[in-house]
Amino acid sequence: MVSGVAIYGFLGWLIDRWLGTDFIVAIGIIVGAGLGIYLTFSRFNRALPPDPQPESQPDKPHDQN
């Protein structure tokens, strides 16, 4: 999540320098934080695979008839 803020903040800073503005860096930081939260949520919010079904136990042991 921190890398998203850093990367998009840096890209916003570069665009600010190129265009001569000073607000795009804030937009980049917010977008980076939002994407970082989204990716973290989507990574850890997956459904667990179902447990394997245990084999059914016979009513009688094999050595008894």
Can you give a write-up of this model?
The chain crosses the membrane at residues 23-41. Keywords: Membrane, Transmembrane, Transmembrane helix. This is AtpZ/AtpI family protein. The longest helix has 21 residues, at 24-44. Helix 1 (2-19) packs antiparallel against helix 2. The protein contains 2 helices and no strands. With 65 residues, the protein is an all-alpha fold. It has helices at 2-19, 24-44. It has a domain at 2-44.
Key words describing this protein structure:
mainly alpha, rod-shaped, 65 residues
In total, how many beta strands?
0
Mean pLDDT over the residues: 83
Largest sheet: none
Count of helical segments? 2
Radius of gyration equals 27 Å
Strand content: under 5%
- Structural class determined from secondary elements: mainly alpha
| Helix-strand string | HH
Distance between the termini: 64 Å
Shape: rod-shaped
Spans with pLDDT under 50 lasting ≥5 residues?
none
Give the oligomer, counting copies of the same chain as homo and different chains as hetero: single chain
What would a concise description of this structure say?
This is AtpZ/AtpI family protein. The protein is built from 2 helices and no strands.
Write the layout of secondary structure elements.
Layout: H1 2-19, H2 24-44
Helix pairs in contact: 1-2
